[in-house]
TrEMBL record:
<feature type="active site" description="Proton donor">
    <location>
        <position position="160"/>
    </location>
</feature>
<keyword id="KW-0457">Lysine biosynthesis</keyword>
<comment type="pathway">
    <text>Amino-acid biosynthesis; L-lysine biosynthesis via DAP pathway; (S)-tetrahydrodipicolinate from L-aspartate: step 4/4.</text>
</comment>
<feature type="binding site">
    <location>
        <begin position="126"/>
        <end position="129"/>
    </location>
    <ligand>
        <name>NAD(+)</name>
    </ligand>
</feature>
<dbReference type="GO" id="GO:0009089">
    <property type="term" value="P:lysine biosynthetic process via diaminopimelate"/>
</dbReference>
<feature type="domain" description="Dihydrodipicolinate reductase C-terminal">
    <location>
        <begin position="132"/>
        <end position="266"/>
    </location>
</feature>
<feature type="active site" description="Proton donor/acceptor">
    <location>
        <position position="156"/>
    </location>
</feature>
<feature type="binding site">
    <location>
        <begin position="166"/>
        <end position="167"/>
    </location>
    <ligand>
        <name>(S)-2,3,4,5-tetrahydrodipicolinate</name>
    </ligand>
</feature>
<feature type="binding site">
    <location>
        <position position="39"/>
    </location>
    <ligand>
        <name>NADP(+)</name>
    </ligand>
</feature>
<feature type="binding site">
    <location>
        <begin position="11"/>
        <end position="16"/>
    </location>
    <ligand>
        <name>NAD(+)</name>
    </ligand>
</feature>
<dbReference type="Pfam" id="PF01113">
    <property type="entry name" value="DapB_N"/>
</dbReference>
<dbReference type="InterPro" id="IPR023940">
    <property type="entry name" value="DHDPR_bac"/>
</dbReference>
<dbReference type="GO" id="GO:0050661">
    <property type="term" value="F:NADP binding"/>
</dbReference>
<keyword id="KW-0028">Amino-acid biosynthesis</keyword>
<dbReference type="GO" id="GO:0005829">
    <property type="term" value="C:cytosol"/>
</dbReference>
<keyword id="KW-0220">Diaminopimelate biosynthesis</keyword>
<feature type="binding site">
    <location>
        <begin position="100"/>
        <end position="102"/>
    </location>
    <ligand>
        <name>NAD(+)</name>
    </ligand>
</feature>
Amino acid sequence: MTETINIILAGPRGKMGTEALKLIERTDHFNLVGCIDRKHNGLSVKDIDNLPNLDAPIYTESSEAFDELNADVLIDLTNPEVGYDNTHLALLHHVRPVVGTSGFSEEQLSTLKQLSDENQTGIVIAPNFAMGAVLMMRFSQMAAKYFPNVEIIEKHHDQKLDAPSGTAVKTAQMIQDVRQTEQQGHPEEKETIEGARGAEYDGFRIHSVRLPGYIAEQEVTFGQTGQTLKITHSSMDRYSFMSGVQFAVEQVMEMDDYVYGLENLME
């Protein structure tokens, strides 16, 4: 019999948070012990319109939630500012964070890694929880060894705050690890409109599209004389991220260290 995992969820009313509540509700060994939200302090999740019928208290002060609740895991699906504070507090309380918030600075990530190491508390930060997106990143890294000329185009809904996306940045980092640095394009290339060629990263380009109708999509295009290679992943529904969330929650229970990127948990 699988041991029950007690979970605090931050961001229950967001689109991703609502899907996570549904995941917890349908997963027998997941138990919601509380939520962190900027509204509805003292109410139960089941009292809030359009949320699953789960009897767990809501806290507006995350410190109170960690002090009062007996939790194993924090799932944080908020934003970089709130998400960092929640994650930091969780590690201080030896609660294992599973974080789907992109946009943390390198300094913040370094601090979280150090705290995880000091407290021997597992943490998973995943720029993307869709298993297909993780494979897309891994396949792109494989291709970059043989196709060093590359550009990344990521497309998200128009309410996304950070650009480029955490997935695009992670993909670029993985490509950089295997690609010899070189400046792509014509040496005398000039933008007649600033930003037309996108953001530059290690000599190649990342482009961000923000439009209603998208959830998340990324295309990594490689070019070589006489041929191109495109590796694409699309999420049509936020449900696509939940298998990765469940996988991360189950994996983090066996960890006492810091992991950035779901691909590092996949064999």
